[in-house]
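Researcher: Please translate sequence to structure tokens.
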Amino acid sequence: MQANKIISERISVKAKRRIIIASGIMLFLIAVVILFISPFAKYLIQKNGEKWLGRQVKMGWLYLNPLTGNATIKNLKILEPGGDTIFFSAKEISVSVSILKIIRKSYEIKKLSINNPVIWIIQNKKQLNFDDLIKKFSPGKTESDTLEGHHFSILRISINNGEFHYVEKSIHVNYFIKNVNIESPGKWWNVDTVAVKFSFISGTSTGEIKGNGSINLKDLNYRMALDIKKFDLDIIQQYFKDLSNYGWFSANLDASLKTTGNITDEENLNASGMIAVNDFHLGKSADDDYVSFSKLVMKITKMAPKSFEYNYDSIILTKPYIKYEIYDKLDNLGRMFGKGASDIKAVNAQRSFRFNLIIEIADYVKVLAKNFFMSNYKIGRLALYNGSFQFNDFSLNEKFSITANPLNIIADSISKKNKRVAIFLRSNIKPYGDLAVDLSINPNDTGEFDLSYRLRKLPIAVFNPYIITFTSFPLERGTLELNGKWNVRNSKIQSDNHLVIIDPRLAVRLKRKEAKRLPVPLLLAFIRERDNLIEYEIPVKGDLKDPKFNLWNVVFKLLGNILIKPPSTPFITHVKHVNSEIDKFLAVVWMTKQATISSSQKEFLTEMHDFLKKNPEASISVTPEEYEAKEKEYVLFYEAKKKYWLVSHKMDGPSLGIKDSAIIDKMNVKDSLFVHYLNSHAGDSMMFTLQERCNAFLGKTGIQDSGKNKTAGSRIVEARYIQLVKTRENSFLSFFKEPEIAHRIHFQKAVYSVPYNGFSFYKIDYNGDIPKNLKKAYTQMNELNGNR
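Model: Translation complete:
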């Protein structure tokens, strides 16, 4: 037994040794496999990358453990096909696969982590740089049948600190986002829904987007919650260039939204929350806006287009600004987008092979809004605050400009369930005037509404650029007022419109070749009523689609003025009040570019001189009110025409005579030869106005100059303007040279504004009531001017 025991122990020792040796060999082999499989796998992948993926693959280090199913790749780079530019890169990719489940035809990625990935998505029209990969890895019919019965799951997906680049070659879009972080619990083979949480920031500017949601991969229903903070929309600027000949766009976005819907059905949307577009700017350049606003905020209670539900707590637009300009050719919008928006239409016509984000967004908004008026819509508050709408017309011989500012529009409780919706508009008119509009409309029938409006205290001298162009007679006095009421039922109009022009007075006729000469003084004599008033009722009737204006009422009123001059009007008292407000002070009006005292003004100033001489205690205060912008515009035109005259006649400045100056002054600023010369020798395609080209031409130092030196031109105009102002002052003071009078003329600091009468003037204040003889001389001066 002892022997058997010894033998058994020897056998046991040998077995143990064999097991240990075998285990050691196995561990050694495993270690060898693990040690060498990683570099071997790296070698295979890098060698066959182009064969498998159609593109070269590079990596810094690969760790592969076939026993645990873990793999790690460091510094992976996948290049574009046939090139050396990077398509995809990552600092580290870690993956963990469940090895045992593969036996049961269940392929489960337990964890996939990608750190610092960078991906480039490059598009050229409708082609993408990864189309080849989609085609290569899309399973065919045979492959789909082969995969049947196999289960695929991918769990715990994370992308950390990623960077996604997007380039569109055909329209030069280059945009990227960074700090991209995506987390998902993944997708089980027997579950259709995938949940995801994500965040990223703008790579080119500022802003952050966070969100979470889920999508059903079978029916494509989705749920999403978004939180957006000051996200710069600079990508829109790049697509905007594709739609326009020039221009600038900028804005940023805030939002807090919860949405559900379906990817394949755009109308199938249910959204609530808030959207705010901030610091919106669209215009010629970064400092020249055509449209802008401080903030547009939309608070959505519920928006579900498919079920005809549009319920908004409020829609508020703050500080909107719109500038519309007319040029000799087209307007500012036509210049930007082509005549009739032809540039936008051209891009839209190429949508089958040309993507533009702006057009896609616009079409999506159309889809969301198309059911609005058919729905039971509700808006708690609709408001526009502190708006500014500016209109400039450069197609005339001088600039016309008028602005509604501040403009406010307010409407509360807009609902289709209400019988009436009230909308109120209030605005000041710059330089003078105010506008009020009250609208009460049936939300279920736009052909049923009541409208009342009132435009007050608008000086007709504002319209001198038009009046001078068509008559050659500027107006230096007069106030336009317009009010009316419209009652519309079943689209049938019943309205009363009342036009009043208070105390219109003509200034001296401008003798220019381009100005048409109409007998305006004679016409005014016919149409004016007593107390220098023009008053007309303008009835408008008919249908909204075809309104009728009764011209005969105006004709009969005109005949009545000619024959009987009716003495009674409810506005006579108002006219007298306005006149008394205007006549509280004396004034010497300077026609544009006028430097010396006219004959009518001479008589008045002589009377003032005599009055001061007879009354040693009397003194006057003179306040120049300068229409600087208009004066400089006239100086600019004259100096540009003078320079053109000197160049075209090969003359120098000293040889310019009085006759030449008179010809230059009367020369039409739209003279075809002058304009052609400007276009050839000054400015560029981005100078749309004659004023800009004249300024550039005036600033040129030689024919080879680029013509863009606006500053030099402005300095010349400024010097000539200062000279003009000083000459006027000297001309005025020449009537009061005597020492005993001179010290009693007190010049005040000039006021720079747009004068109510449309011309620069000297406001003359006298301490006390204006003496009768002075007032008589002043009245005679104005009557003489008005009858010319």
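Researcher: Any highlights?
Model: The longest helix spans residues 2-53.
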